[in-house]
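chain below, 335 aa
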Amino acid sequence: MKTLRWGVLGVAGIATRKVIPAMQKGQWSTVTAIASRDGEKAREAADALGIAKAYGSYQDLLLDPDIDAVYNPLPNHLHVPWTERAAEAGKHVLCEKPIALSAEEARRLLAVRDRTGVQIQEAFMVRSHPQWLAARRLVQEGRIGDLRAIVGAFSYYNDNPANIRNVPEWGGGALMDIGCYLINTSRFLVGREPERVSGAVDRDPAMKIDRLTSMLLDYGGVHLAGTCSMQMVYYQRMQVFGTKGLIDIRIPFNAPPDRPCEIVVDSGKDLFGGGQEVLTFPVCDQYTIQGDLFSQAILEGRSAPEPLEDAVANMECLEAVFRSAASGRWETLNP
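prediction:
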């Protein structure tokens, strides 16, 4: 069976530890090459992961005619430049989130996609996990009545100044790194864009990144209330509230690939779990599913599973949170 041939830009931890091993298990995906600005690092990663080709520059990988698609896990400020170069080289691109540093920058990719004819997608892998597909289906079927609110938290601790997530000019900070998941999944569940956005930010006094960001997204009758932090206890949870019940997604973002996942549907019968039903999802790897869905779409001549326009819309929301934090007012999305 034909598979899509992938090249990987860089030896980032998320690529070498999570995404590449997962994609290598896929039915429709083959990782054939990896590149680094350091040829020795590329070769070491290739040998460790059983990848045939190693390149000492990103551009050399893009010139390889035997590569169909590129996975871009580079630091945030390099997402758009190297996605553009990959597209110009005729490669389809799966780019890590956030896809850009701004909505304006993300919109550049729309023009590149349309001009080159390749597919470009932002890598929000959670949208491919069965637990999120089930949560959305339950909402759409009215299992919890009318959707009213989504409450989420995502946090971990990282105060290392040398870490790229703590460099503001490289797109560091809590909202860009993890808060984007709260916004993306709420949009996924609600199925429309927020009418207005409010945000509050606390910045690290030395590194200047947002170490704590909270947001309120008003979808018109539905609210997202979310908090993210890069200097707080390791934690993640999403809860979805309706008029007749709630859905509790216990490990919403870093779903484990080696054990089943659970979500709880609660009718609200009492506060002691009397109305709870636990839904269990078999072991799966959301990175494998994400890669295969993208690969299969390309091989069958279809559009990417998640349109690039959605990535632009998510960036609009991120910007609105930052604008609100600065202005102290509700903000609307830029047209």
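Residues 308-327 form the longest helix (20 residues). The chain has two domains: 4-125+288-304, 127-283+316-327.
thats it, cya
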